[in-house]
Amino acid sequence: MQNLNDLDVRGKKVLVRVDYNVPLKDGKVEDDTRITASLPTLQQLLDGGAALILASHLGRPKNGYEDKYSLRGIAPVLEKHLGRPVQFVEGLPGSAEVAAAVRDLKPGEVALLDNVRFESGEEKNDAALNNKLAALADAFVLDAFGSAHRAHSSVSGVAAKLPHAAGLLLQREVDALGKLTGTPERPYVVIIGGAKVSDKIKVIENLLPKVDRMLIGGGMMFTFLKAQGGQIGSSLVEDDQLDYARSLLEKYGDKLLLPSDAVAADKFAADAQTQVVPAGEIPDGWMGLDIGPDTRAAYTEALQGAKTVFWNGPMGVFEMEAFAAGTNAVAKAVGELGAQGAYTVIGGGDSVSAINKSGYADKVSHISTGGGASLELLEGKQLPGVEAMR
Predict the structure, then answer these.
(1) Are residues 22 and 75 in the same domain?
(2) Is 196 a catalytic residue?
(3) Per residue in 281-340, pLDDT tens?
(4) Does residue 386 fall inside a structural domain?
(5) Is 348 known to be catalytic?
(6) What share of the chain is helix, strand, coil (3-state, %, to 5)?
(7) Could you read off the pLDDT of 373-390 as tens digits, one per residue?
C-alpha cells in the first residue's frame, strides 16, 4: 500500500477518513480508544505541514441528520489529545456550506466534519458525493480500518479522485493481521467466541486448516454441543447451523476444543441463580452463560507454549460479573503469553473491551480497532478500502 511517506502534504489540505465510531452517552465520549488510535497519523501529517479535514461515521443514522449521531461531542476530546484547536464544522459533509467553512484552513489547523452517514450517498459510494468530498482537499488518507471493508464514498470512493495513502493505523492493522494468514510461528492457537456461529463461519473455515488448535466459547459453543447430541437447556443455539457444526467436528475434530462444563443460569440476568454443570447436560429451563472452571483450566493449558494467538469473541456474557470468569481467564492467559514473547492479536469488538478490563491490554502484541474488518481480512476477503490504497 502507499503510505504517508509517499505523500507530499506540506501546505496542502488533507482529507483523513478516521474511525470515530465511539460510544457516546448524553453526547459525551465514553471510550476514546479509537480517537487516540488516530493520533500518530494526524500528528505526522500536521508535522509535515498539512491542514486536516477529518471525516468519520458514527452509528447508523437512517434519515439524514440525527442529533444523537452527531460528532460534535468528539471535537473537544480530540482537541485535548492533539493539544490544538479542532474546528467542528456544522452541516452535511458534502454541502456548499461545509466547503466554504474549510476553504481557508491553514497548515496546522484541524477541522472535523459531521457524520458522513448523514449524507444519503455515503453508503452507496455515490459519484456526486465522491466529487464533493474530493473537492475539499488536495490529498486523501484512509486511517479507518474499522470501515475498510465498506465500499463507501469516504472510504474508497474519494480515494479514486485524489492522491492517497494509508494511514499508520491502517498500515499497522493490515501488517498485524497479515501475519496470522501468512506463515505464523507455531504452535498457532485461535480462540473464537461470541454469540453466533453464523457470524464467524468464514473466518473459522479459513483459519482451521492453518491452526494447531481452535478453542470455542461464547454462545456459539452450544450449537456445537447440540450438534454432538448434548442437552443445552434454554441456551442460545442456531439450529440451522447444526449440520455445518457437525461437518466441522468431523473434519477438524482433532483441532477443535469444546467446553467440558458451563456456568448455567435460571435467567438472563446479573442476579440469576447459577450452577456449574457438564456442558452437554444443561437442565431444561437453564441456560449456559459462560464456560465453567474445568474448561477455563483446560483452555489455559491448551494455550501454553503457543507462539501465535488470535482471539475474537468473549467466552460468556462477560458484561455481567457472574459470567465473566471465562473471558477473564482467557484474557489472563493470552496476556501472559504476550509477556513471554508470543505474537498475540485481539480481534476487535467485545474482545477488546475484555482485554482492556482484564488489565493485560499492554501485554498483547496488537489490539485491532476493526471487528468486522479484521474478520473479513482473516476470511481472505479483499477489503475495498485496503485495495483503494494499493
Answers:
(1) yes
(2) yes
(3) 999 999 999 999 999 999 999 999 999 999 999 999 998 999 999 999 999 999 999 999
(4) no
(5) no
(6) 40, 20, 40
(7) 888 888 888 999 999 998
Express each pLDDT in 67-91 by its tens digit: 999 999 999 999 999 999 999 999 9
Quick one: 252 and 326 in the same domain?
yes
State how many domains the chain has. 2
Range of the domain at 235: 182-378
pLDDT digits (tens, 9 = 90+) for 219-271: 999 999 999 999 999 999 999 999 999 999 999 989 999 999 999 999 999 99
In angstroms, the Cα distances linking 378 to 22, 99, 213, 311 are 23, 38, 16, 12
- Does residue 211 fall inside a structural domain? yes
Identify the active-site residue in 48, 59, 91, 372.
Answer: 372
For 152, list phi and psi in degrees, rounded to 5: -105, 165
Domain boundary among 135, 168, 201: 168
Tell me the C-alpha distance between 379 and 93, whole Å.
Answer: 33
Instruction: Say yes or no: 247 and 113 in one domain.
Output: no
Check: CB of residue 317 under 8 Å from CB of residue 291: no
From the candidates 12, 196, 307, 357, give the one annotated as an active-site residue: 196
Has 349 been annotated as catalytic?
yes
Percent of the chain with pLDDT over 90: 81
Catalytic residue among 13, 17, 34, 363: 34
Residue among 219, 347, 349, 371 flagged as catalytic: 349
Active site residue 372: yes
